[in-house]
Amino acid sequence: MDYPHVFSPGRIGSLMVKNRIKYAATETNFNTQDGFVTEREVAFLEAQARGGAAIVTTQGAYPDLLGEGKGFRGTMSIADDRFIPGLAKLADAIKRNGALAALQILHCGREGGVDLGYCLMPSVVPQRLSYFKPPREMTPAQIERAVREHADAARRAVAAGFDMIELSGIVGYLISTFISRYTNKRQDAYGGETIGQRCRLMGEILGAVKAEIGDKIPVGIRLCGAEILDDRGGNTLEESIESFRIAEEAGADYVSVTVGWHESSVSVITRDVPMGHWLWVAERVKKVVTVPVMMAFRLFLPEIPEKAIADGVIDFWEACRPMIADPELPRKASEGRVGEIIPCIACNLCFSRLYYHQPIMCSVRPSLGHEAEEAWGYRGFAPAKQRKRICVIGGGPAGLQCAAVSARKGHEVILWEKGETLGGSVLFASQVDKGEDELLRPIRYLEGECRRAGVGITLGKECTPEIVREYHPDAVVIATGARFKTLPAAIDCLNPAQIIGEGKRPGKRALIIGGDGVGVALAVYLLGRGEYALTLIEESGRLGRDVSPFYLWRFLKLFRERGVTLLTRAVPVGPEGKVWTISSPKGEKRVEVDHVIVATRETPEDVREALAGSAPAVYVVGDARRPRRLHNAVQDGYRMGMEL
Q1: CATH no. for residue 232?
Q2: The pLDDT value given to residue 586
Q3: Are 311 and 422 contained in the same domain?
Q4: pLDDT exceeds cutoff 90 at 127
Q5: Distance (Å, rounded) from C-alpha 393 to C-alpha 464?
Q6: 3 state SS of 330
Q7: Do the beta carbons of residue 33 and residue 337 sit within 8 Å?
């Protein structure tokens, strides 16, 4: 076995566990808005258990009937006995597939009250993020009630059949706001200058839960090992580490180490943070506690937690986003099939959709949320009723995904890519900034899937209509991607493919036309390679409207620091020599530039027209259908493969 420490048995409290992998809690928005568990949620967690993890943790369940602890519209509730039957379905689905079932109790505190006009905090501290509700300071009676609600929730979890209980005290949720000096300004028994005083609520909740359910059911807690709130008076590192020792003293049977709050001014879980970067925080915690220590942050490859466990840095690997991307990760790793693991790329699409009140999606696994639907092929596709010959033109993510699914269904598939390397526009995106080479991981995975399924792949050859007709396909799938728009021939301009792919360099004063993800990425790329005076214009009212907020804030910060001129609702009027006039609601602006870069895209209609009639059926997927983002291309390709 390649990972002997990861797959060694362990102990948490009174329980023996079969390996050191715990699927960590994540919200899904799969449940009803009044807090009841749905079959979709059951199927999702059943897949996590079937995949081989020793422990599977539910999403956080809010414990109060008012919904003050509810952070997302589709969060499940544990605030009343009527929720027990649905929770019992979750526990049963997890346990019958060989994993221990853990339920997380989550009062979201300052991030709660999603259906209300307020949220609860230890003190009234202004909210920094727009989707947080206006705060109300908790009264002593409300604090006492919250402690009781957590204990009652634990009792219900045990009644539902769960093996473990987890409390969430991270990122600005209720318990963490009492622990942090940033949000706790109280002068009563639940506040004060010392970390011990501010940990009182945590201690009382742990004590009440343990008293309610006894010692046979392990109780763990997730805490923040480093808040990264120095710019607004958060806890010191030493205070945060001390909170773990206090948690153990209060009865915690294990601790889970996290880093950062949602408003921390440093990247925490994005690709610019190297995998394994935050293990030093867990190592600090390990030195002050004797109970098992877990961590989830940026531990995407099994060799990273394997070494960390071997070195005594952590005791358990918490896998959250990597197991959203592939619940079979533990099984594949244990069987030496690491190349078959669907790789998480830290895009955080799953996370960001929660704040738009949408069910989570995954950029690299379209079957997320459809685990129980046979047509989506999570457990394998049924053979197609009629075997077809399918020609896929284009080796980007949409073409590769379509070819892989089609071949898995038994079709004869051949894929052409005119370039020498598979990947399409991802090849450019992977070069934009540090860490972006992780975007190539799903390309390598999809290439492997195609080859394992028997797809014939031809590189370095453009597929013409004549070649297609020689193949006599039943269906053609056009996945050639989008192309960049052009300006009138008299205007000398470049596009991102020429700059990133061909190595052409614009002059230092550059005007970028198009401020969606492509234009933003191109600006980041150039700023990383020299001193550029950039003007970035976007026709719509919002810059980077298709960029994940987990990344956009960092890019906008970079633009401010480097003096990039940003104009929205702006269009180029035209040049007079090297001076371009830009029109916007603020009036006209004249900008002297050395080069114009066109970063807006369009569909290649001529390709579609040329291939029309080359087969009984011709389809278009990905950016060739409409320029969008990676997850759209992967979804397009997957759905087309399902339909063929």
Answers
A1: 3.20.20.70
A2: 86
A3: no
A4: no
A5: 9
A6: helix
A7: no
